[in-house]
Amino acid sequence: MLLEEQWYDLDMPESVDFPSGYSEKLATFQILLLLRCFRVDRVYRAISNYITLILGESYITPPVISLGALSCDIVNYSPRTKIGAFISPLQVFSQSLDNILEQSTPHMPVVFILSPGSDPTSDLMKLAELSLSGSGRFKYLSLGQGQERIALTLLETAIARGQWLMLQNCHLLVTFLRTLEKELDEMAKPHPDFRLWLTTDPTPTFPIGILQRSLKVVTEPPNGLKLNLHSTYFKLRSQSLDNCVHPAFRSLVYVLAFFHAVVQVSET
């Protein structure tokens, strides 16, 4: 049994028994409270371990939102459905933009609530190339002062012609969103291919009317080495790995993905 001082100086005290026999005397949650008193720097990791123990690892693993999923032998990992309450209001959970598209309708915009470092634009452009016949049917505009008239013109055209319209940085022009909400309310018979995609930083001023009618997706960059590797492979498609038959290709992809994950983790 470790003495209190020895336990306190450990790098990961949450991974060993609490001294003085408290691990046997107290419930797991009570051990968290003691850890909070003595080693507040390890509470986050301890809570993650607690959630994994009680609910399962899927509850601490953020979903990867991408163009498609891939199960790779290189990392010996098969993605599972892991989205909890990230997509609403239909409570239909998916791991790819393909499935999000299936759940959306011309009357139901998709709102991406972004966290730093996340941007779905490139994946949406790739999805548009695969899903829409004909070029130039994916339009996007970064909102800002003076962009209201342009945005309304693009919206009217997209509704009539069945285009996809992505309005970025909606939090920068919240006043326009009131007008956008009115336009959506008055939209009678949109083209069946029409889709509206909105991106915004978290903001309390986002119109509740748009949120209530939208499919909401919360995105966040992966945290940790394992999740970064998962994110990289999740965004690859099978054809990308099959196009090169060189026996070292997959190993090189893994090494590059691992290096990228290490760099991403070190930056955070």
TrEMBL record:
A GO MF annotation of the entry reads: dynein intermediate chain binding
The name under which this protein is listed is Dynein heavy chain region D6 P-loop domain-containing protein
Q: PANTHER family per the record?
A: DYNEIN AXONEMAL HEAVY CHAIN 10, DYNEIN HEAVY CHAIN 6, AXONEMAL-LIKE-RELATED
Which superkingdom is the protein from? Answer: Eukaryota
| InterPro entries, per database record | AAA_lid_11_sf (IPR042219), DHC (IPR026983), Dynein_heavy_D6_P-loop (IPR004273), P-loop_NTPase (IPR027417)
Q: Name one Pfam family in it.
A: Dynein_heavy
Q: Which residues form the Dynein heavy chain region D6 P-loop domain?
A: 106-218
Any GO BP annotation:
microtubule-based movement
The signal peptide stretch is none
**A single GO cellular-component term on record:** dynein complex
Q: Which organism is it from?
A: Timema bartmani
